[in-house]
Fold this sequence. Notes:
Layout: H1 3-7, H2 10-31, H3 34-41, H4 45-52, H5 55-74, H6 85-102, H7 104-115, H8 122-141, H9 155-179, H10 182-207
Helix pairs in contact: 2-3, 2-7, 5-7, 5-8, 6-7, 6-9, 6-10, 9-10
Amino acid sequence: MYENFERIPTAQQRRILESCLEEFARHGYEQASTNAIVRQADIPKGTLFYFFGSKKHLYLYLVDYAVRRYVEQVSLSSEELPSDLFERLLARGRLRMRFAVQEPLLYQFFFNAFLHTPAEIQSEIAHRYVEYAAASRKLLFEGLDRSKFGDDVNIEQAIDLTNLVLEGIFSRYAQQISQGTPEQALAFVEQLSAQVQGYFDLLKRGLYR
C-alpha cells in the first residue's frame, strides 16, 4: 500500500516522516493538520495522499515506523540483558529514559498512540499493541534467573509489580526530564536510576530468597 512512498529517496522519506511525527505528537490524531504537515515537509498536499491514501493510513504507517524505531533503540537481546529481574528492568528502563531524552517527539507519539488511541482506529492500534507487548514480554522472560525467587512467589505477578513501580517513578519525573537540556536530562536519568535501585532493593526483600 505504501510502495510509492518507499520508492522515494531515504532523505525525503525521513523529512516527511519527521514532519508528520511532529504534528501528530504535538496535536494528537484528531487535531493534527495535514496542511501543516505538507507545509513543514515542503510537498504538495496531493503528494501526501498519493503516498498514504488517507490521514488514517498515514497515522498507522507512523505507528509502525515509531514501533520499529523504539524497538531498535531500547531493545537488547536476552543474551545482552542481565539475568537478574531487577537489573534487567533497570537496564531497560534506563534505555527507555534515554530514548525519551534523545527522541522526545518520537517517544511522545509512540506512547500517545497506545495510551490515547483515537477511537477511529482502536482496533488497528490494539492489534499492533498486542504484537508489540507479546514480543516485549517474551524477551523479558527469556534467560531470566528464576532461582532467586522465593518458592511461594508468582514470578509473573512479581514482574508486573516491579514494572508498576518503575512506571510510577518514570511518570513522576517525565516532565522534569523533558524540561532540561539533553545533557541535564541524561544526568538526571542517572540520578533517577540510583533512586529506582533503592526501591528495587526493598522489593527484593519480599520476592527473593
